Every structure is written in C-alpha cells, then in structure tokens.
Amino acid sequence: MEDFDTARFLYLAILLGAVAFYTLVSYRRALGQMLRHVILWALIFIGIMAGYGLWQDVAPRLAPVQITHGNGVFEVPKDANGQFNLVAKINGKNIRFLVDTGASTIVLSHSDAEKAGVAIDEKAYTGVAQTANGAVRTALVNIETLNIGGIQDSNVRAYVTDGDLFGSLLGMEYLQRFEKIEILRDKIILTR
What we know:
Layout: H1 3-26, H2 31-62, E1 67-70, E2 73-77, E3 85-90, E4 93-99, E5 107-108, H3 110-115, E6 125-131, E7 134-148, E8 151-161, E9 168-170, H4 172-175, E10 180-183, E11 187-191
Parallel strand pairs: 4-9, 5-8
Antiparallel strand pairs: 1-2, 2-11, 3-4, 3-7, 6-7, 7-8, 10-11
C-alpha cells in the first residue's frame, strides 16, 4: 500500500476500534443484546451494499427500456424525465438513444460511436450542426447494422459529434422508416 492508503487504513482502524470499545463499555451488562444489534446492523449494511451492487442488473427489469411485441411493433415507455429512451444494437453493441423528433438524423455521441466500433478519423469532422448547446462539428459515418426490437437495417447513415453530447439521438430520418408512430400519454409505439 502507498503511504496515503496506509494512513487512511490506520485512521479507519482506530475509528472502528473506538466505536467497538464504546459499544462494549455501553453494553457490558447486556452482551446478548449488543450482539443482536451488531448482527442486525451488519445485515443492514450487507443488504445495502448488495442492493447497490445489483442495481444495474435489477433496474432494467423494474422500469423496462422497451417492450417488443413482435411483428415489427414495440413500445418505449416514458422515463422519469418525461423522455423516450430506447436501446438499439449498433454493430452488435447496445447503445442507448433518446427518441428525438426534433433531430433530423441519427446522431451518435463520440463515446457511443467508439463503443459500437464506428471508425472515425479526426479529419472526418467536416460538417457543422446547430444544437441546443450551440454549434458542434460532425462527421458523416455509415452504421453497418442497426437493430431495434428485432428490426434490422443495414448501411444506415448517421453523424458523430465531437462536442459534448449527453447521449445519442434517434432522429426523424430514421423514424420515418416506420409505418406508424403513436405517442400516447406515457409511451411511444413504433410500428414497421
């Protein structure tokens, strides 16, 4: 361990020792009750840590990102922010998209493009797009495969930004491939 880690460990050990000493002195006449309290708090701590560790696995089941009905129909529920987010597979990698009827095209954040293996040369940023956050440079790319709810498209045109983008956008150029788009109170239904 480094010196800083050793000092931190020593501090925490002394603090834990002081709490343990105080607890023993306070409960010296009721050691059985103290043991029950220690076990209870240990179980609560373990439960909180397990819940935190498993949250990434449990969260999609509690609030599904999208529901595929088959036959080219799937629905996307509104999230807590009132937006419609879905997960699409780009070149086999899961990428989260905001369904954005105000966006003209598919726009990938730089990190999502890298994750999906979309090759971007720094010299390719020749375009400029106006966003709510101002102008950003863009690069035209070709997505080999884009799969949403079992519907797969090949050679899909998209843009990658070099600016700060909170996530990727699924714009109207792609949404127009659907036969019907229904926006209900708390969900959007896409039908191909």
